[in-house]
Amino acid sequence: MKTYNYSDLSKSDIQKLVQRNVDPAEEIRAVVEGVIENVRANGDKALLEYAARFDNVELKSLTIEKEELVGLAATLLPEQKLALQTAYENIYKFHQSQLKTEDKVETMPGVTCWRELRPIEKVGLYIPGGTAVLPSTFLMLGIPARIAGCREIVICSPPQKDGKVNGFIAYVAQLLGIERIYLIGGAQAVAAMAYGTESITKVDKIFGPGNQYVTKAKTIIQSTTNTAIDMPAGPSEVLVIADETAIPAYIAADLLAQAEHGVDSQSVLVTTSKDIAEKTIAELEKQLPVLPRAQIAQKAIDNSYIILVNNLDEAMAFSNEYAPEHLILSTANWQLIIDKIINAGSVFLGNLTPESAGDYASGTNHTLPTSAYAKAYSGVSVDSFVKKVTFQHITPEGIKNIGPTVETLAELEGLQAHRNAVTVRMSEL
Questions:
Q1: Which residues, 6 or more positions from 330, have their beta carbon under 8 angstroms from its beta carbon?
Q2: Three-state secondary-structure class, residue 140
Q3: Residue 78 CB: number of other CB atoms within 10 A?
Q4: Where are the domains of the chain?
């Protein structure tokens, strides 16, 4: 990992360091636009062709149904089922607390306003299955969708070489009461859910992380259709802030946990201690070679770096500019800087809080904004699956109180019909 001194960096240097996932030649966009148009025009036929081309699977059917999912789920070991069940319960408990009824507010006598939640009717969940199969993502998306009460939940996940999904995905489907999974991956899955095909229902909103092709497809879909997306969630990333109280072995493990996601992942260490930086590099060299996905992690680490800062204020300034998906405060004094966090997807406090706990089972959601989108987006929650509809009710007393204000404002804007809508009511009282 290359090391930089924060005090030597200009603003433009910092901007270059924090920028990621760039497609300067628009090559990814060109490919994805072709995929979207093909799926839109040819539906299921295009999806079967892409399964053969990209997944190397000749599918006889685009779906895997309840009976087969039950059989696949039965292949799990008891301890594997228990782990998924425990994660399910923790995630459910945390997300259930987000479903709250808001109070009605009387803004003036006789004028009452409030909001009520309504579920998004049809949602599409994309569960990645490229270099790693992620049942945890299925939990993170499926649980809040169920809590919100979405009427139809469409699940897309790439097929394995045998044309099925693995037992972990199947077991999560059982936990969530999902009876069908569409064997579709990549940008073509996003296109199918956005436009609908002979087999797949068009959805109102698409959720789920993915590679740069999936992310690009979601951004194109959001700007060209009436289908919304959760956020532009691309390759995973972590930023670790560490001082002299940090433990290098823990830091290295956290950096590698993100690096093993994919070659385009990024792991950044920002530290006040040169000694911690050097010891972390030594730990990386020790831990990386024994990982099963060492080759992938090595490429991601090669694309990562270390920033040496003078104090934790500088560390936080850089972090807020980077706006990481995951932020780890590897310091015994995290209470002193937590209020300075402005931009981050999810935060992990102290030396005993690994990011992987949030990835799997602590309860928080791991579907988070990447690529500095944490400056404007939140992670997935129950709120992501509902609409908040406003209501208002006005009594005879209320129309007398608010009417003159509305009449005056409508008149100064030159909208006479707006004024009349109040005047005709007041004249009847």
A1: 240, 241, 242, 243, 245, 246, 247, 250, 251, 254, 350, 351
A2: helix
A3: 7
A4: 27-99+118-230, 235-375, 395-428
Q: Which residues are CB-contacts of 428 (< 8 A; sequence separation ≥ 6)?
A: none
Residue 26 is predicted with a pLDDT of 81
Residue 412 to residue 168: CA distance in whole angstroms: 63
**What CATH fold (topology level) applies to the domain 27-99+118-230?**
Rossmann fold (3.40.50)
Q: What is the pLDDT of residue 130?
A: 63
Measured in whole angstroms, the distance separating CA 49 from the mean position of its chain's CA atoms is 28
How far apart, in whole angstroms, are the C-alpha atoms of residue 300 and residue 160?
Answer: 25
Closest CA to 400 of 365, 364, 428: 428
For residue 199, how far is the Cα from the chain centroid?
26
Span 93-118, average pLDDT:
97
Q: Is the pLDDT of residue 229 over 80?
A: yes
Q: Burial code of 319-339, b = ≥16 C-beta within 10 A, e = fewer?
A: bbbbbbbbbbbbbeebeebee
For residue 115, give the H/E element and its range. strand 111-119
Which neighbouring-strand residues pair with 165? none
Structure-block tokens of residue 208 = 């789920």
Residue in the block written with tokens 């209320």:
398
pLDDT score recorded for residue 67 = 96
d(CA 99, CA 149): 11
What is the rounded distance in angstroms from the CA atom of residue 349 to the CA atom of residue 334? 6
pLDDT at 234 over 60: yes
What dihedral angle (degrees, nearest 10) is formed by the CA atoms of 91, 207, 176, 171? -90
The secondary structure of residue 161, as a DSSP letter, is: T
Once rounded to an integer, what is the mean pLDDT over residues 322-330?
98
CB 260 within 8 A of CB 293: yes
Q: 124-128, 230-234, 313-317: lowest mean pLDDT where?
A: 230-234
361-413 pLDDT tens trace: 999 999 999 999 999 999 999 999 999 999 999 999 999 999 999 999 999 99
The set of catalytic residues is 325-326
Write phi, then psi, for 125 (nearest 5 degrees).
-110, 120
Residue type, 402: I
Asked whether this chain's domains 27-99+118-230 and 235-375 adopt the same fold, the reply is yes
Q: How much is the CA Rg of the chain, to the nearest whole Å?
A: 25
What integer pLDDT is reported at residue 25 of this predicted model? 57
| pLDDT, tens only, 256-287 | 999 999 898 999 999 999 999 999 999 999 99
**Over the chain, what is the mean pLDDT?**
95
What's domain 235-375's superfamily in CATH? Nitrogenase molybdenum iron protein domain (3.40.50.1980)
